[in-house]
Design a protein that fits this description.
Keywords: Methyltransferase, RNA-binding, S-adenosyl-L-methionine, Transferase. Belongs to the class I-like SAM-binding methyltransferase superfamily. RsmB/NOP family. One of its GO terms (molecular function) is RNA methyltransferase activity. The chain is an alpha/beta fold. Among the domains are: 86 residues, no CATH class; 121 residues, 3-Layer(aba) Sandwich (Rossmann fold). It contains twelve helices and ten strands. Strands 4-5-1-6 form a four-stranded antiparallel β-sheet. The protein is globular and about 60 Å long. The two termini are 23 Å apart.
Length: 302
């Protein structure tokens, strides 16, 4: 899992061709690219992580399914306005039980995410399908507007886990080493704000870093909507992020209280949303990323 922001990975042979589109410019999941890769199946079988062939088959079948769309209402949204957003969300989705896409009826089910307050995930709809479903057009427009306003963050469910596990407190100094596009950074910022009392500004802050200057610029754009004073954006190669000693700690501890390290991805963790990877994935290219991933992780541990 993670982000493919390493230039060595972004070779044409690894990415494969772009998904073909029909005359209306609409892509079709799995119709133009065969969701098979013997190298991938052989590699995972060799890891001996499955108890039997049936579990391996279930794993591969899950990899072929589109990634469900998910989002969350910001934890820093005032309670009164949060109630209003929840009502609007209910109005847009409660009466829609199915959607017609490409002359096929798809069941619509929006379920809460248990470990994230006011987080939601569609059971079997990905982002592309939502955009193309006429019955969900009003919901999609509403979602885009609220995202632009900073009240809602469209974020993968698995991406919501690290900030929850980090248990960030208002006084914490946090480093996100590979931050772009910024969904986890936003979640941490909201946590810093909501855990303060009496409307005070948080004493802690987060340094959001990305080695790619263009992605760092995109990160600034993403975080600007939150209007928080507790964010610093840097663009440094994460392998060489400076080791900042703590001024008030004589035990040799580092400057940051929490460090989030979402290293560049080998690709197989993003196959459910980037189906082109099915045609180009190989363990040789992916294993070639391991030294980079390890170096970044070790830098974060210092």
């Amino acid at each position: 899992m993670g982000k493919n922001n390493d230039k060595r990975y972004k070779r044409k042979s690894q990415r494969g061709p772009r998904e073909k589109k029909d005359r209306n410019g609409k892509g079709t999941w799995g119709k133009t690219i065969t969701l098979e890769n013997k190298k991938l199946e052989t590699y995972y079988t060799a890891q001996n992580i499955f108890k039997d062939e049936e579990e391996c088959k279930q794993f591969m079948d899950a990899m072929r399914k589109p990634l469900p769309a998910s989002f969350r209402i910001g934890s820093d949204v005032p309670s009164a306005f949060r109630d209003s957003l929840m009502k609007e969300l209910h109005d847009h989705t409660s009466d829609v039980t199915s959607a017609n896409v490409d002359d096929k009826e798809i069941r619509v089910s929006l379920d809460p995410i248990k470990f994230v307050d006011d987080g939601f995930q569609f059971a079997n709809l990905d982002r592309k399908t939502i955009r193309r479903a006429p019955r969900l057009a009003q919901f999609h427009d509403w979602l885009v507007v609220q995202t632009s306003n900073g009240f809602i963050t469209r974020q993968e469910t698995v991406s919501m886990l690290p900030p929850v596990a980090m248990d960030v407190q208002p006084h914490h100094k946090v480093l996100d080493m590979c931050a772009a596009p910024g969904s986890k950074t936003s979640q941490i910022l909201e946590t810093l704000a909501t855990k303060t009392t009496n409307g005070e500004e948080p004493k802690g802050f987060i340094v959001a870093n990305d080695s790619d200057s263009k992605r760092a610029y995109m990160l600034v754009h993403q975080l600007r909507r939150l209007n928080s004073p507790a964010i610093f954006v840097t663009s440094i190669d994460a392998r060489f992020f400076p080791n900042i000693p703590s001024c008030d700690d004589k035990n040799g501890e580092g400057f940051f209280d929490r460090v989030l390290c979402d290293v560049p991805c080998s690709g197989d963790g993003t196959m459910r949303k980037n189906i082109q990877i099915w045609r180009g994935w190989g363990n040789k290219q992916s294993m070639g990323l391991h030294p980079l991933q390890r170096t970044i992780a070790e830098c974060g541990l210092r």
